[in-house]
Amino acid sequence: MNVCVIGTGYVGLVTGVCFSSLGHNVVCVDHDLDKINSLRCGVVPIYEPGLKELMNKSTKANNLIFTTDLEEGMNEATIILIAVGTPANKDGSANLTYIKRVALEIGQYVRPGMTIVTKSTVPVGTNKKIKQWVSFSSGHQQFSIASCPEFLREGNAIKDTLEMERAVFGVEDVQAELALRALHKPINPTIIVTTIETAETAKYAANAFLATKISFINEVANVCESVGADVEALARVMGLDHRIGTSFLKAGVGYGGSCFPKDTQAFIRIAAEANYHLQIVPAVERVNHEQRYRLLAKLKKSCPILAGKRIAILGLAFKPHTDDMRAAPALDIIQALLSEQSSTIAYDPVASDQAKRLLPDVVLASSWQEAVKEADAVLILTDWAEFKSIDLEELKVLMRDSVVIDGRNLFHPEEMKQQGFYYDSVGRAQVDGRLSQKKEAPSPSLTAQTGTH
Ligand SMILES: NC(=O)c1ccc[n+]([C@@H]2O[C@H](COP(=O)([O-])OP(=O)(O)OC[C@H]3O[C@@H](n4cnc5c(N)ncnc54)[C@H](O)[C@@H]3O)[C@@H](O)[C@H]2O)c1
Ligand SMILES: O=c1ccn([C@@H]2O[C@H](COP(=O)(O)OP(=O)(O)O[C@H]3O[C@H](CO)[C@@H](O)[C@H](O)[C@H]3O)[C@@H](O)[C@H]2O)c(=O)[nH]1
């Protein structure tokens, strides 16, 4: 099948690469010339495991090309996939500027029989507007539109696409359904054919539900801290009930990323415009916002005056296996630390380039060891495997004071206590091993003077 993908961001590039790897002929179009030039040279502008290798395989096989020229992209195509951004407006609604521009551009080249599919996350009614915009600029309506929202997760995007569990085809006619079926045939996911409105709403509902699970477990974690329960064990107890499920029950510093924060906000606006005032989703957002600042409160418990203190941040990306820092908890937390005049130094295995742009005032380290050296406290914000395997003895030797505030529950409180750390995490007991370790291991000279304790 000849496919044109418009937008080569996280969704468009992964989609183009994966469908080309399955034997479709794909042209990826982006108006960003630098991006297209680097893709043509085999350089992937984002960090996504496995993407570069798969992309280079497809380009070598001549199944995948990159261009800035939409006419060239649509020349042979029978199906057009729109994957441009839909960022949030100031009021939380989805900004459709890029979508509208693309629709008007597509209208210049659309031919009878083509199917135009929206992969971008768009509010209900947008695909119908796309139909109007494309027809306005083409002067005809001999094409089909469809909503096929994307459910991939960053960091796992290739697998999520090639082994997609389900796909929703929101269609207006049989032509669109057949085109989408042909496109997905090599993947063979469970397919749900719906109206366009159902498909559009399903994407927001799915993200809002996942965000709800996270805020729910974070609230439970906050209760655990007050009643002496352990959220990690509790989440397992809850999750092993199949009706609940184990995924998205990881308590922590709250969700970030390019999707949950903006899509929950947009969903609230979509519902309000339809005269329904969502009650759960705004609470989910509030809990998520407060969760970031609870971590700062934990830091202040052990370090009440932050001015002049050296605070090391481990993890900047909103989750592991990505360099994406959009709406990452690290952004708010670091801003708060800087506003209290702490000296902040951060390390992330892959997000440093993004951080240079988004946090120009933060010193960036090139290793975790460099970041924690002489630190008064360490804050863990991303659950990278590299942090989980940190040598705790080395960490303790490098730090000035052994305070670890863990927003991702990477370590066990008891182990941290034994290693001599002050350790506070989410939904578990706060421990302080600094004093006990000093008592247990007095210096030899002190022992000689005062006898054993
Ligand atoms: N990032 C994710 O994990 C994810 C997952 C599911 C759904 N989505 C949704 O998919 C959409 C895209 O998200 P993203 O993260 O890939 O965005 P992105 O910002 O990474 O990429 C968008 C790309 O579109 C290009 N673009 C914009 N206007 C264009 C035009 N007129 N012609 C050609 N190219 C144009 C930009 O240059 C950019 O490269 C959004 O609606 C998002 O909500 C994202
Ligand atoms: O139990 C959990 C699971 C996730 N998170 C956090 O939630 C955020 C989002 O994580 P994840 O969903 O894995 O990443 P995304 O790439 O943002 O993917 C979400 O957003 C995409 C864009 O809409 C959807 O396509 C995906 O299905 C949906 O999972 C991250 O900050 C995670 O740290 C938690 O705190 N606890």
UniProtKB/TrEMBL annotation:
Transmembrane segments: none annotated. InterPro entries: 6-PGluconate_DH-like_C_sf, NAD(P)-bd_dom_sf, UDP-Glc/GDP-Man, UDP-Glc/GDP-Man_DH_C, UDP-Glc/GDP-Man_DH_C_sf, UDP-Glc/GDP-Man_DH_dimer, UDP-Glc/GDP-Man_DH_N, UDPglc_DH_bac. One of its GO terms (molecular function) is UDP-glucose 6-dehydrogenase activity. Its EC number is 1.1.1.22. Keywords: NAD, Oxidoreductase. GO terms for biological process: polysaccharide biosynthetic process; UDP-glucuronate biosynthetic process. NAD(+) binds at residues 30, 35, 86, 121, 154, 262, 326. Pfam families: UDPG_MGDP_dh (PF00984), UDPG_MGDP_dh_C (PF03720), UDPG_MGDP_dh_N (PF03721). The active site is at residue 259. The keyword NAD applies. Substrate binds at residues 151-154, 203, 248-252, 256, 319. Residues 312-413 form the UDP-glucose/GDP-mannose dehydrogenase C-terminal domain. SUPFAM superfamilies: 6-phosphogluconate dehydrogenase C-terminal domain-like (SSF48179), NAD(P)-binding Rossmann-fold domains (SSF51735), UDP-glucose/GDP-mannose dehydrogenase C-terminal domain (SSF52413). Residues 433-453 are annotated as: Disordered. It is an enzyme of class 1 (oxidoreductase). Pathway: Nucleotide-sugar biosynthesis; UDP-alpha-D-glucuronate biosynthesis; UDP-alpha-D-glucuronate from UDP-alpha-D-glucose: step 1/1. It catalyses: UDP-alpha-D-glucose + 2 NAD(+) + H2O = UDP-alpha-D-glucuronate + 2 NADH + 3 H(+). Residues 444-453 have a biased composition (Polar residues). It comes from the Bacteria. Belongs to the UDP-glucose/GDP-mannose dehydrogenase family. PANTHER family: UDP-GLUCOSE 6-DEHYDROGENASE TUAD (PTHR43750:SF3). This is UDP-glucose 6-dehydrogenase. The lineage of its organism: Bacteria, Bacillati, Bacillota, Bacilli, Bacillales.
